[in-house]
Specification:
Length: 229
């Protein structure tokens, strides 16, 4: 799995965390975003309430879930703007252009500030993406990789901006990915190769190359989804 703080991995056996991640995927497949209350969720997963809270805290730190006091726990990054009322005003071009403006500089900053733990998390994502058995699983790992890169900047405001952008993607970009690639386990092997080039530039602490590779990756994604235009 992707572990932004790699030194904590031993505290969280893969079996429990993997089971919870699978539960998130299955919940999304049903068209739902809200998780059940903790008593029911702990029973369904077969873990204690305390153990469940530890796992949820890990996923919340990754941006995989967020909690709203009084409303419950939701899958995905925290929504900082009212997505139901604003999402219709954002086109796919809006989203892609925003990604092109934000994510290449994030990759450059990550190249200057990333730690060994950050790189281990990115490598874990890359390895799992190659083994993804469904598009939903691949998209979840893709999201984690891009967020791990954003998190490696050590800039909480930039991470918040990324999370806000990511929350909008599912209303437009994610739907297009599903339309184009359907049930394929991922959008072609060369997309994984593009990710590897970004991570390698970050590993080499080369901000110029990291920014260039991220921009090239996003342009390539645009071409796959909409054709060259």
């Amino acid at each position: 799995m992707c572990y932004p703080q790699g030194h904590q991995e031993e505290e969280l056996p893969d079996t429990d965390l993997a089971r919870l991640r699978t539960y998130l995927d299955q919940t999304l497949e049903r068209g739902e975003e809200r998780l059940p209350p903790e008593p029911r969720l702990s029973e369904e997963l077969g873990v204690s309430r305390g153990r469940l809270r530890t796992l949820l805290k890990r996923l919340e730190a990754e941006g995989a879930i967020w909690r709203h006091v009084g409303k419950g726990t939701f899958i995905g990054p925290r929504k900082l703007i009212d997505t139901p009322t604003t999402s219709s005003s954002f086109s796919m071009d809006d989203i892609l252009q925003a990604r092109l403006l934000l994510e290449p500089p994030l990759a450059a900053e990550a190249a200057m500030r990333s730690t060994a733990e950050d790189l281990a998390a990115m490598d874990n994502c890359l390895a799992e993406m190659k083994l993804a058995e469904s598009m939903l699983q691949w998209k979840r790992l893709d999201e984690k990789l891009h967020r791990t890169i954003a998190q490696a900047t050590r800039n909480s405001l930039m991470l918040t901006l990324y999370d806000t952008l990511r929350a909008q993607m599912k209303f437009t970009l994610d739907r297009r990915i599903d339309q184009v690639f359907g049930a394929e386990p991922g959008p072609k092997e060369n997309t994984d190769d593009e990710h590897s080039l970004v991570v390698e530039a970050i590993r080499n602490h080369d901000p110029v190359e990291a920014e260039r590779q991220m921009r090239a990756h996003l342009h390539s994604l645009r071409g796959k989804l909409f054709g060259l235009r």
